[in-house]
Amino acid sequence: MTKKDRFFRKFYSLFRKKKKAKSVELEQKLVEKEKQYQDIYETANSIIIKWNPEFSILAINPYGEEFFNVKSRDIEGKDLVRDLFNVHSEKINAMKSVLWNIFHLPDQFIIQEYDVYLKNNERRTISWSNRIFRNETGYPYEVLSIGNDITNRKVAEEKLKRAVEEAKAANKSKSIFFSKITHELRTPLHAVIGLSQILTKDQELPQHLKGYVDSLHQNGLHLLSMINDLLDISKIEAGKMTENKERFSIPQLWDTLFSLFAYRFLEKGITFRLKNQENIHNKFYFGDLQKIRQILVNLIGNALKFTNSGQVCLDIIIKEPNNKSFDLVEFKLADTGIGIPSEQFEIIFEAFHQTEIGSSYQEGTGLGLSISHQLVELLGGTISVTSELGKGSEFSFEIPLTILDSTEENQNQITKIKFLSSDDLKLEKIEEIREVDQVKVFLDSLNELTKKELIGFIRLQDFQRLLEALKNVKQISQAKNLLEEKARERKFKFFIELIQSLN
């Protein structure tokens, strides 16, 4: 034997030994793996079943035996649906159709949920994970199904679903009740407010009763505001609050807010002003003006209530995104009031909630911020708050507003911002006093019958009849024209000043 032959023989011998060693090692690992799988199969707290496309049971683990109260030796080879799942005879084909569908799915693992019946006819819902084994041609020859009993979970889910539905029904009933009762309350309340308003203007009312009548009127208005809040929250919860869009401009919005609040701020000695008015563009928007105004009225009303000195500022920031069809408009209202604790930032927007400091004021229902929050979301926006105790708060919300095409007519109709701050009214008040004096001189120049008739309409603030009566006055004067102008524009504050001067 040559040296070369001896080398190859030795090499071949070593190769066979290594191959045999590897084979033994692989076989040992395979045995260990099989033992692990067998341990899982024997000890798993899940049902494990092997079955074939003919629905014959090939094997079932001990947990499955205990669950179905069967023995593997008795059930193997039996029909899966009829003999193990105990499905009623009229439903067997339907169940097999459901199971057969998994063979047509491309996925290797299929999840299913269906009911099975125990020997005592108790129905249980099982969640199955199915592993399909296929041969070289792709034909399925075996299925490994692992099942877990989810009956209790399903029962709990059903109870929760019913509880949610009952809660929704109860909430809807509550909302309907609130809606009906608030409508019923508002009708007589309007009568009380109207009559008390007439009485406050009656010059023959004894002086000692005027305070009582004024208190009745103010409390009636406060109660009406609370009822309106309840009506709004019931509409929101019932899903009946919808958008009512109209054309408006930001200057028009500010003009309305200013006329509502300026004198109340003036009486309290607090400045109410608009910041950065130069950034407000003269353009018309198409949006729900009433809801935007309601949000701001709620926020400004809170600022007025909780601010005892300093100022309340409204900043309106118009952002123009790349999309030319709408603007993002941000409203920021900052005050120098009592502030809000940081830990209560999240809960102040909940219905009927007031901060501990706020509740000491004993006013309102605690619905204003909740209504504002939900209205902002209805308009597609978000609202947030920052605050520091003793220094003040800032509420801000941002909403998208559709831009209307700019036309010459639109531009001519846009309201010019007349007042930027309640401090400006101090100067206007002097001018109003002059106007009141002019009208008083005009009234004194008339005969007693005409004067009494006009003053009667002025006290009732019946502007339509006042204008008709003024048409019959032949006298031509600047004061008469001024009175007609104030009546047409329904300048309530001017007429209140005039009525007070006539007493």
Automatic annotation (TrEMBL):
One of its GO terms (molecular function) is phosphorelay sensor kinase activity. Residues 110-162 form the PAC domain. Pfam families: HATPase_c (PF02518), HisKA (PF00512). It is an enzyme of class 2 (transferase). Keywords: Coiled coil, Kinase, Phosphoprotein, Transferase. Residues 180-403 form the Histidine kinase domain. Residues 16-43 form a coiled coil. It catalyses: ATP + protein L-histidine = ADP + protein N-phospho-L-histidine. Its EC number is 2.7.13.3. InterPro entries: HATPase_C_sf (IPR036890), HATPase_dom (IPR003594), His_kinase_dom (IPR005467), HisK_dim/P_dom (IPR003661), HisK_dim/P_sf (IPR036097), PAS (IPR000014), PAS-assoc_C (IPR000700), PAS-like_dom_sf (IPR035965). PANTHER family: TWO-COMPONENT HISTIDINE PROTEIN KINASE. NCBIfam families: sensory_box. This is histidine kinase.
